[in-house]
């Protein structure tokens, strides 16, 4: 029942948003409200649909670690122009500390969980850990490749000279490998039927924004 409601609710939100963007690009003027809402609501529904709630405390420890480390890395990256390249954050991700939105750490948490739990329960235990680490990290990289061209349109972040450096994709992939390695090597079994649906919806959403602009 919860899964069906989640799919219906999220499908409705994505469809309405996509139609609104296709009809009128000015819909994105509300991105300062839309983006935080999308991140939080997707994460909440993912957590509610987690299929291994008996290990919630263990998961919270690892994902709190991911939030803190990713946020610290982003602070260094945006203030010292290292790691990802030269960029600065816009305003659509909300409150900033040290020029870095708090929500960016939550977004790393969301995306790592999303790509780590994307495997169907029937085959999750059959896939070697190293393969899962690689596939999940490649999914993260694919997500970033689709997102980056529209990041400035959504007032997420801005690259110097409007050029996305290859360094960004390398750093993104390496960090994804690190986080997925930590999760898998510590036997954090994540399965969530909603993950694949949200991942596809997100990719379609960013591709359509790319197309509109």
Notes on the structure:
- With 213 residues, this protein is mainly α.
- It starts with a helix and ends with a helix.
- It has eight helices and four strands.
- Helix content is 67%, strand content 5%.
- Helix 1 (2-23) packs parallel to helix 8 and helix 4 packs across helix 6 (129-147).
- The strands form two sheets. It has a two-stranded antiparallel ribbon. The protein has a two-stranded antiparallel sheet with strand order 2-3.
- The longest helix has 25 residues, at 56-80.
- Strand 2 (96-97) and strand 3 (100-101) form a beta hairpin.
- The protein has helices at residues 2-23, 31-48, 56-80, 102-116, 121-124, 129-147, 166-185, 193-212, and strands spanning 87-89, 96-97, 100-101, 157-159.
Quick structural summary:
The protein has 213 residues and is mainly alpha-helical. The chain contains eight helices and four strands; from the N terminus they run αααβββαααβαα. It has one domain.
Detail the topology: elements first, then pairings:
Blueprint: H1 2-23, H2 31-48, H3 56-80, E1 87-89, E2 96-97, E3 100-101, H4 102-116, H5 121-124, H6 129-147, E4 157-159, H7 166-185, H8 193-212
Antiparallel strand pairs: 1-4, 2-3
Helix pairs in contact: 1-8, 2-4, 3-4, 4-6, 6-7
Q: In what order do the strands lie side by side in the largest sheet? A: 1-4
Radius of gyration: 17 Å
Count of individual domains:
1
pLDDT averaged over residues: 90
Structural class: mainly alpha
Helix content: 55-70%
Shape: globular
> Distance N terminus to C terminus?
38 Å
H/E element sequence: HHHEEEHHHEHH
Quaternary structure annotation: single chain
**Relative strand content:** under 5%
**What's the total number of strands?**
4
Spans where pLDDT lies below 50 across 5 or more residues: none
Tally of individual helices: 8
- Characterize the main sheet: 2 strands, antiparallel
């Amino acid at each position: 029942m919860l899964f069906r409601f989640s799919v219906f609710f999220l499908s409705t939100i994505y469809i309405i948003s996509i139609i609104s963007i296709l009809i009128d690009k000015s819909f994105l003027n509300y991105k300062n409200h839309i983006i935080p809402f999308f991140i939080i609501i997707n994460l909440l529904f993912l957590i509610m649909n987690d299929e291994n709630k008996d290990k919630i405390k263990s998961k919270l420890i690892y994902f709190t670690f991911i939030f803190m480390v990713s946020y610290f890395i982003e602070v260094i990256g945006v203030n010292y122009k290292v790691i990802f390249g030269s960029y600065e954050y816009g305003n659509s991700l909300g409150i900033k500390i040290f020029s870095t939105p708090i929500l960016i750490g939550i977004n790393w948490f969301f995306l790592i969980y999303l790509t780590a739990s994307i495997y169907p329960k029937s085959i999750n235990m059959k896939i070697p850990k190293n393969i899962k680490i690689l596939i999940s990290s490649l999914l993260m990289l694919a997500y970033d490749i689709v997102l980056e061209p529209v990041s400035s349109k959504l007032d997420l972040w801005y690259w110097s000279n409007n050029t996305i450096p290859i360094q960004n994709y390398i750093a993104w992939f390496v960090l994804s490998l690190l986080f997925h390695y930590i999760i898998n090597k510590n036997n954090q079994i994540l399965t969530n039927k909603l993950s694949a649906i949200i991942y596809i919806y997100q990719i379609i959403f960013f591709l359509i924004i790319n197309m509109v602009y």
